[in-house]
Design goal:
single chain, mainly alpha, Growth Hormone, Chain: A, 0% strand, globular
């Protein structure tokens, strides 16, 4: 196995793991926090628009999700720009912020039963912590990776994977570009779909405490990144 192949697999594994976290987080918030999107955050625009048209008071969490996401992205960008030239540190800081925010959300889930009143302050705090975590994740993807994949909105990845699969079939597997595009996108789709299934199972089994699952996953990813960096430094 060549060094390039190992690097390529490493490049795919981290976004796939982040897609898994996004899927878990989004489904748990959707099921337990009154239909709030925390990863596919622009989906909240649909919720707010539907509420406005039907005369329903817009849900505060859905209204706040987008500006909170934007502000968190601005802060993450400022931090990354300050750490310019320190890619490994930027990675640790932004993925660390994701993990910390999801751990806070998990801790808050033990304070009360947020799912029983998705409009409560507790539910709002848990939801917005998750939104901030997903903003940190997406900021990392765009600021620290040469090619920024989407780990939350899968529509684009599905289109790319479908076109690549078509080109692979019609070229009988000879299209290198199609192979690369398919290799880059299918792990993200698999990660997000797997995350959705894990999130749904966690919400069913653990109720409000399901928020622990994405927190544990985020901490595990951060730990794996730190360990991989140390191994690379000692190699």
């Amino acid at each position: 196995m060549t060094t390039a192949t190992v690097a390529k697999r490493s490049d795919v594994r981290l976004p796939a793991a982040l897609s898994l976290i996004s899927g878990v987080t989004d489904v748990i918030s959707w099921l337990l926090l009154g239909g709030l999107f925390t990863a596919h955050v622009t989906g909240n625009l649909v919720l707010v628009a539907a509420d406005v048209v039907t005369g329903t008071p817009p849900r505060l969490a859905a209204v706040l999700a987008i500006p909170v996401f934007v502000v968190t992205t601005v802060v993450a960008t400022a931090v990354a720009r300050r750490l310019a030239g320190h890619d490994a540190r930027t990675q640790r800081v932004l993925l660390g912020a994701q993990a910390l925010l999801l751990v806070i959300a998990a801790g808050l889930s033990f304070v009360g039963h947020a799912s029983s009143d998705p409009q409560s302050g507790l539910a709002l705090a848990i939801g917005l912590c998750a939104v901030c975590a997903m903003a940190s994740q997406n900021a990392y993807l765009h600021l620290a990776l040469p090619k920024a994949p989407s780990t939350a909105v899968m529509t684009g990845n599905l289109v790319v994977a479908t076109i690549a699969a078509f080109d692979l079939v019609t070229s009988r597997g000879r299209s290198q570009q199609a192979r690369e595009h398919f290799t880059d996108t299918w792990p993200l789709l698999a990660g997000f779909i797997g995350g959705c299934l894990v999130g749904a199972a966690a919400a069913t089994l653990f109720g409000d405490h399901a928020a622990v699952v994405p927190a544990v996953l985020a901490v595990a990813v951060l730990a794996a990144v730190v360990v991989a960096k140390k191994r690379a430094d000692h190699a």
